[in-house]
Amino acid sequence: MVRHFFVSVLLLSTITITGCSSSPQEPEHQGNQQIMIIQAEAEQAYKMARLDQAESLYFEVLASVPNYAPAWFRLGNIYTRTGRNEAAIAAYQRCLELEPSNQKAMYNMSLVRLKQSTQVLSTAVRQGDKNSPVGLQIQALLEALNTIQSDTHKPTLNNATTEQAKR
Q1: What is the DSSP string of 31-92?
Q2: CA gap 29, 23 in Å, rounded
Q3: For 103-159, how does the pLDDT look when each residue is reduced to its tens digit (9 = 90+)?
Q4: What is the pLDDT of residues 91-119, one digit of tens each?
Q5: Nearest to 43 by CA among 27, 60, 65, 31
Q6: How far is residue 92's CA from residue 126's CA, in Å, rounded to a whole number?
Q7: CA dist 23 to 26, 35, 64, 76, Å?
Q8: CB-based contacts of 155: which residues, under 8 Å, 6+ apart?
Q9: Count of CB atoms within 10 A of residue 7's CB?
Q10: How far apart are CA 80 and CA 115, in angstroms?
Q11: Which residues contact 125 (CB under 8 A, 6 or more apart)?
Q12: Do residues 57 and 70 lie in contact, with contact meaning Cβ atoms separated by under 8 Å?
């Protein structure tokens, strides 16, 4: 009985090893390796602030792996840094579709929305009656948003952690 068991294990191991070394697996492995290289190049370009190059490389990654949430997250960051707020929101939303609990994407998307709100309120202050009841509310809200945004960039212990979370 023990001998049958060892023969079975040996036979199964031989089949498994033979199956793993078959040639159909090699092109897929090489393709995955190429994607990993492109991803590493994209990360390097991103860290070096070569955002155009990083964006192109992340698109190459996503052409092969469209559901790769980290690439969507990085695209959101690139779009935020380059002032393409709607594209940033769309990229963060795609990241969140793939990783619903990604707090970094939620946080960054909220910062973009705060920036958009600040821009709308700034326009409202310039174009409206500053002394009307709604004009006073707009100014108060704008001041509050400006304070919030300046506080998120102060180097305190809690905000240093927050700054790391955005990356």
Answers
A1: HHHHHHHHHHHHHHHHHTT-HHHHHHHHHHHHHH-TT-HHHHHHHHHHHHHTT-HHHHHHHH
A2: 10
A3: 999 999 999 999 999 999 999 999 989 899 999 999 999 999 988 888 766 544 444
A4: 999 999 999 999 999 999 999 999 999 99
A5: 60
A6: 31
A7: 5, 19, 21, 38
A8: 163
A9: 10
A10: 10
A11: 135, 138, 139, 142
A12: no
d(CA 118, CA 91): 21
Query: How many residues does this entry show for the chain?
Result: 167
Total-model pTM? 0.70
Distance CA 21, CA 42 (A): 31
d(CA 109, CA 117): 12
CB distance 122 to 105 below 8 Å? no
Q: What is the pLDDT of residues 30-43, one digit of tens each?
A: 668 999 999 999 99
Tokens encoding 140? 């108060």
| Gap between the Cα atoms of 68 and 49, Å rounded | 21
Give the Cα separation of 46 and 70 in Å (integer).
Answer: 12
Please name the residue that has the structure tokens 């002032």. 83
